[in-house]
Design a protein that fits this description.
Helix content is about 5%, strand content about 30%. It is mainly beta. The chain has a five-stranded mixed beta sheet with strand order 3-11-10-5-6. Strands 2-1-4-9 form a four-stranded antiparallel beta sheet. The longest helix has 11 residues. The radius of gyration is 20 Å and the shape is globular. The structure holds 2-acetamido-2-deoxy-beta-D-glucopyranose and copper (II) ion (CU). Keywords: Carbohydrate metabolism, Cellulose degradation, Copper, Disulfide bond, Metal-binding, Monooxygenase, Oxidoreductase, Polysaccharide degradation, Secreted, Signal.
């Protein structure tokens, strides 16, 4: 396992032996190449703000925790025009090595007419998407970042149709919990949102980076390798309540919230005569175990690599 991971890292990441970040973004049929942190910044034109290193941020209050750099825009900064309500996808390195931890996506509106020249550290961010522990237990479960890996190392969110039109930064983040301190991997891109609505985030939904997280947040200090983690089925995602939610406390994600992961592929095995319990794996590429779920659950395709009793 370790040998395999090192092998992949050596092939895919010749200039740094670990980790990575958001390498590209797509929206509405447009592909946007990312910033290349190990190339000269001279001449680089990207919608993604410069970021400095493939290494994780391990201090949740670090001065770079907004966009993995000092927050400035480069001379050739570009902006993607995206429609409110459209899907936007961030692509991490192939193959992302960290399947345990949450995915989080934020927006921040910039003052004036463009984000160019606006330091991302000065912005107020609101969370538009999150995925924590999707099923199973903290110690042995299926996480947002595992789903990201199973989705071609990409994560797709919808720009809310209700946000006001204007200049925004989007911040894609994956957090790895396989070791402590937790590893934060945030990168940001510059957007111009069109066709939006009139629902501004509430004050309790707006946060700064640094500021949104603390190093004692339960979602950043959870230890996957304890006996307790082997039975614990709740995980508290760091950061503010989701934009559009009415609850004030941080959202607690419990196993049943997997609705967005079941897509058009449909069930592969509808016979409810098997032995696999709710949320257990029952199929997927490479799966050699049993495929029958206990009644009343059915084996449901989550993605090509993962079917689950739901
Ligand atoms: C998978 O991601 C890569 C970028 O990492 C992209 O070039 C490729 O088109 C993606 N494949 C699919 C099927 O989306
Ligand atoms: Cu890493």
């Amino acid at each position: 396992m370790l040998f395999q991971l090192l092998g992949i890292a050596l092939l895919a990441v010749p200039k740094a032996l670990a980790h990575g970040g958001v390498m590209a973004i797509s929206n509405g049929g447009n592909w946007y190449n990312g910033w290349q942190p190990y190339n000269s910044p001279t001449g680089q034109a990207s919608i993604i703000r410069p970021w400095a290193t493939y290494d994780p941020i391990t201090d949740a209050t670090a001065s770079t925790v907004h966009c993995n750099d000092d927050g400035t825009s480069p001379s050739l900064q570009m902006t993607a025009t995206v429609a409110a309500g459209s899907k936007i996808t961030g692509y991490w390195n192939q193959v992302w090595p960290h399947p345990y931890g949450p995915m989080l996506v934020y927006l921040a509106q910039c003052p004036g007419t463009t984000c160019t020249g606006v330091n991302t550290r000065s912005l107020k961010w609101f969370k538009i998407d999150e995925a924590g522990l999707l099923s199973g237990t903290v110690g042995k479960g299926y996480w947002g970042s595992g789903k990201m890996i199973d989705s071609n190392c990409s994560w797709t969110s919808t720009i809310p149709s209700t946000v006001p039109s204007g200049p925004y930064m989007i911040r894609f983040e994956t957090i790895a919990l396989h070791s402590l301190p937790a590893q934060l991997y945030p990168e940001c891109a510059q957007l111009q949102i069109t066709g939006g609505g009139n629902v501004s985030p509430s004050s309790s939904q707006l946060v700064s980076f640094p500021g949104a997280y603390s190093n004692s947040d339960p979602g950043l200090t959870v230890n996957l390798y304890t006996n307790e983690a082997m039975t614990q089925t709740t995980y508290i995602i760091p950061g503010p309540p989701l934009y559009g939610s009415s609850s004030n406390p941080s959202s607690t994600q419990a196993p049943p919230t997997t609705t967005k992961t079941t897509t058009s592929s449909g069930p592969t095995n509808t016979g409810s005569t098997g032995t696999i319990a709710q949320y257990g794996q029952c199929g997927g590429i490479g799966w050699t175990g049993p495929t029958g779920c206990v009644s009343p659950y059915t084996c449901t395709v989550v993605n090509p690599y993962y079917s689950q009793c739901l």
